[in-house]
Amino acid sequence: MQAGACFVRSQAELGNEPSCSLAQLYAPNNMPEALRKVHNQLDKAVDAAYGYKPVLSKAEGVKKDDAARVTFLFERYQKQLAP
Hints:
Helices cover 67% and strands 0% of the residues. The protein has helices at 3-15, 22-25, 33-50, 61-81. The chain is extended.
């Protein structure tokens, strides 16, 4: 699935939870399952687009991989900005 389509679907999922703030939706163990699935699809689309290879293990967990993904993406961004 394309990243743009995932974003649109995630926005639709946010609309399904109108009484929740973003902080509430993204609190650990509080994200609605449908929104979590869309985010997982978006992560896969971004990974494929930018060549990120996630390393997941039960010991490290998804949260650590999210941090590694953000680091990877910001490093790519900084390289693009460099003269």
